Amino acid sequence: MPPESYKNESLPRVTLGEDASGNVRLRNCTEKQVSSQEEAMSLLMWATNNRVVAETACNMESSRSHCVLTVAIESRHADGETVVRSKLNLVDLAGSERVAKTNAEGLLLKEACDINLRLHYLEQVISALHRKDEHVPYRNSVMTSLLRDSLGGNCSTIMVATLTPEPA
């Protein structure tokens, strides 16, 4: 039986903003600086342990949201003047949910609808980029806004998908 609500109402809602350079930033979200692989893995494990999952008819541990881990890397050349900055976004998308198969109700049903809508927004962005549309609807969701510089422009994007085959 899923909990009626597992939202921590005392935490402020995460929202989007832009810094002075026009880069998308999350408000009410903590940014952590790490200097070793061990620190990074510890932080990743903390995030994994704090993800919200719930049981559905199709999955014992169904993720109830998408998760984005952004790794920003800054490297300084030995001359001390040359700085190279890179950003790696690791995105774990919650799977598309067929409500009729998951038997979702209440909060789980709302979450399933939100998950599917966010996946649809991501699909719209990818399709618009593929068609080379003049307008790309990045602002439709927090996730696509946050990933804007990683989906289009001067970047490399790789998608790895886990699929469950089933009859239509």
Folded structure, characterized:
The protein is an alpha+beta fold. Helices cover 31% and strands 19% of the residues. The chain has 5 helices and 6 strands; from the N terminus they run ββαββββαααα. A two-stranded antiparallel sheet has the order 1-2. A two-stranded antiparallel sheet has the order 3-4. The radius of gyration is 18 Å and the shape is globular. The two termini are 28 Å apart. The model is unreliable at 1-6 (pLDDT under 50).
Give a topology summary:
Layout: E1 15-18, E2 24-27, H1 37-49, E3 53-54, E4 62-63, E5 67-76, E6 83-92, H2 99-102, H3 106-131, H4 142-146, H5 148-151
Antiparallel strand pairs: 1-2, 3-4, 5-6
Extended strand count: 6
- Helix tally? 5
The helix/strand class is: alpha+beta
Strand content: 15-25%
Separation of the first and last Cα atoms? 28 Å
**Biggest sheet strand line-up:** 1-2
On the 0-100 scale, what is the average pLDDT?
81
Summarize the structure.
The chain is α+β, with helices and mostly antiparallel strands and 168 residues long.
Main features:
disordered N terminus, single chain, alpha+beta, 168 residues
